[in-house]
Amino acid sequence: MTLHLPTLMLVLIVGFLLMLLELAVARSAWIRSPELRIWNWGGWAILGGFVGLAARLTVPEWISILVGNGLIQIGMAIYARAIYRFVAQSEPPHWITGFTVLALIALALMLPWPLNQRTSVLSFLFIVPLVPCAWLIYRHAWHAERSLRSIAFTFSLCIVALLVRGVHAWLSPQEYTNLLQASFGQGGTFLMAFVALLGAGWGFVLAGFERTASQLEVLATHDGLTGCVNRRTADAMLSHALARGRRDGSPVALVLIDIDHFKQINDRYGHATGDEALRAFAAAVRLRLRNSDVFGRWGGEEFGLILPATDRPGAMRLAEEVRASVEALELQAPDSGTIAVRMSAGVAIAPSDSELKSATLYRLADQALYAAKHQGRNRVVLAEA
Hints:
By secondary structure, this protein is an alpha+beta fold. 65% of the residues lie in helices and 9% in strands. It folds into 2 domains: 5-220; 231-382, Alpha-Beta Plaits (2-Layer Sandwich), CATH 3.30.70.270. It is elongated.
């Protein structure tokens, strides 16, 4: 069985062109991602490489070799940059850029070589930028966007195909007398390697969609300034916590918190300083919370803690620890002074055998918060049973 390599090249060119058009549509309509733009550049480089290789019948062979293989090597390096930016939010190791430059120099030096030897070495060179990318996904992003797994898989498939191609080209020179030779060994490995890269491109588009959807979900459920869940989400989570507490026979605590005299901070120092105070406050509170606790922003300077499986002593102890952490904050004021941040808190408990609704629990915590402010602020008050 033989595979007609010119036909395979045409199929891959059309496939990459369709993928790049899809990337362009995704970028313009749904996904505003610099990593997707970088991946797009890599795809265009590889597509240009295919065109350069396919143009061997119409241009001098040395131009086809340099342009075709050189653009593919550059495209692999650009893919590596996109993966590192997307997964690790960092630039790839500098050695990948250095290696790409050396590979291009080696490509020029290999021009006099027989096709099978040049094909073998180039196959190994193409692999190098892909290996750290696949490893990065397997090690650090396997549980992130699920579509990244398809990229790791297709990169691995491409690596295996190029390894087979490199070994096969070296051991079977009779199947590599010219680039457009119809042979299963040359055509099959070429097809497998670059169809895998084509699949990785679609995977990257899907990963971009997944991340965008996740970011939109966060925007819809969280406060952008402090990172707390918003009021609507917190209300729903409180109802869920109460229902689970009744089912499991465990108490649920609600702590309502209000930053004392926050309006004075805004009026005296400006809203930018007020925002910084809110972020510092939220960070101090999070240091005291368990993974199961929910930290929500009800609005303005009012926050709430939903504490599953927490009784009165536990809730009061945690609320007091939070108050002490906030009291210890020292924020730098624009006038070189310091800003004192204080908070008042009201604690309400839904016992394990309680049928309290979320609105009732909220009202009890709010009454306790009002009492804390009435008693002088900077304190924690437990709601009356």
